[in-house]
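Hello again, I could really use a second opinion on something today. I've been staring at a protein lately and its backbone has me curious. Can you walk me through what the tokens say about the fold? Take your time with it, there's no hurry, and the full record follows here:
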Amino acid sequence: MKNNVMRLVSWQWSLVMLLILSSVLTACGSNNSQNNNRTNTSVTDKPIVTQSTEQSENKESTTAPSGKVVVYTAGPEGLAAKIKEGFEAKYGITVEQFDGTTGKVLGRLEAEKSNPIADIVIVASWPTAMSMKADDWVQGYADAENADKLQAGWVDSDYSLFGYSASALGITYNTKLVTDIPTDWSDLTDPKWKGLVNIPDPSLSGSALDFISGYLNDKGNNDWSLFEELKANGVAMAGANKEALDPVITGAKSVVMAGVDYMAYSAKAKGEPVDIVYPASGTVINPRAAMIMKTSPNVENARLFIDYLLSDEAQALVTGAYLLPGRADIKAENRTNTEDIKLLNYDWNWMSEQGETISTQFLELFK
């Protein structure tokens, strides 16, 4: 009897243990199933997350800046390099830059007309910029920062042309060779200056063309008498502005007529024997126009570049290069300022319309 009871208890205990073990195995199976389900959900979700990220990246690639701006500029080379450096440091945008005379910049634009590259163009001639606008090469930027602070007339009505800096034309002379300093343009027709005077080529120097056009506009467009007398007195047409100035620095010539003043101030600061006077009858001040090309591949970056040109930082670079600042609220301390330079009576629209004809006639006279 006792043995039977013991066998019964043992059998019952085995049954309990079997039930417990079955319960544990079932629970483990349930947990594994849940884990597998979570793993499957994660694998299923992964492509969705990846797709969302790719879509976000694609969206950014179509709206983000390209990271560069292409600038064609008619010098000054030292200033252009500093502006490039300052802009890149401020915005982290690479500036791809071509430096040349106004003529060379225009030539490159013409050569690339079927495949435009430039975003920003800077020329040393306001009438040249006006002609480019008339030919539908440029676009406006009405929200340009500090444009309202520019000198009167140094920004057009639809904010396409920005005169961020300027130079004035004067008589640059070698201080070692010249003691009787000329005070007006007509002085250079005197026989004592025969063969001693250079004038820049207006087909290469936009500023020289502006002076010639402005002078003719002031005196009457058919009055070429001054230039005819200058030619008769041996005045030589000598390349662009630098090529006209270099012989005066070395002493091979005594005077540059219609020399850009910032070059004279810069050379003088370096210890060269040169100085400049502004003629008593008046001269021309050339705003250096910066423009956004209508075909600009990087418009937003181009707008930032215009903003930078008109900023306090860039305007300080302008005055440091002996140019006139574009902004009326900033004064240069190392040169004569705009308000102290007497101007001829000229009209930019007339000069723009007549510029090509005047250049051709001048070249025929001096060649």
Notes: The chain is about 50% helix and 15% strand.
